[in-house]
Design a protein that fits this description.
The structure holds two protein chains of two kinds. By secondary structure, chain A is mostly helical. Chain A has seven helices and two strands; from the N terminus they run αααααααββ. In chain B, about 55% of the residues lie in helices and about 5% in strands. The chains are: A mainly alpha, B mainly alpha. Chain A: Keywords: Signal.
Amino acid sequence: MKFFMILLVSLVSLYAKAPSLKPVDNALYTKECASCHFGYQPGLLPSQSWEYIMGSLENHYGTDASIDESDNKELLAYLVANSSQNAMNYKRSAKITKSLEKGVLYKSLTQIPYLKEKHKDIKPWMIEQKEVGSLARCAACHKGADKAYFKDKDVEIPNYGRWEK
Amino acid sequence: MKKTVLTLCLVAGVANAMMLNPDMKNYINELKVQASKDDASFKDFDALRGEKIYFTKNAGKDAQILSCQSCHNADLSTNGTNVFTNKTLDPLSPKANASRLTNVKDVKKWLKRNFKDVFLREGTAKEKGDVLYYIMTK
């Protein structure tokens, strides 16, 4: 009985510590993508979005971010293998996937319905201020974003502080 | 006087070029071949011309006034900031950051992209070599 209690407690604590989004675990991705911007976890976008992004790197939100063909292939394979619909065991990826409308190509993170809903109460000045600048700069407020922690308690908005609902 | 400074800079540039790894030396030579094809009077790259390019401002990406220093700073030995994403950049100076100017693939990639961000076009072989010589002196 005692053994089962210990097993139960450790299972519960394991579950509680499980990340709600899979952290980035690809060195090429970190080098090629996260040298310019926050290293968005692949599970934040569906496969179709990653295919669009990797297919249009010459004009990547206004910058030529093209890379050679073999690197592109390798990165796309990693992104698709871990995209939101292929990471449904992670809570955030599942919620992102379920929020998508059929037939819509989401070209950026800021268009994802679940993420729009989660940020709807954020005041425009909080996003527009120079310390943040865009809703796409996750790490400006989500202090654990690099480790894929996106809980409310880890949020700290510049010139505002903790996010309390 | 000006000529002396120029000569000194050229010598310093050459001395630095000799510290490059074989791959990078080959790349510099490729650029030299191309620069000579583009302009028969071309002799060598020049750190002073590179410095001028580095600090030249232009209406670049998103019509924003940019130069190389917008992201990489006037002091190349300090951490920079990508002005479009707020991402911190490691120093561009090879003295401050030993990984700089070691990987030809990376060097080619960044020269192409960053010229396009600032000048909305790729740099010529001469311009790329000049900027590389300037970075080598920093």
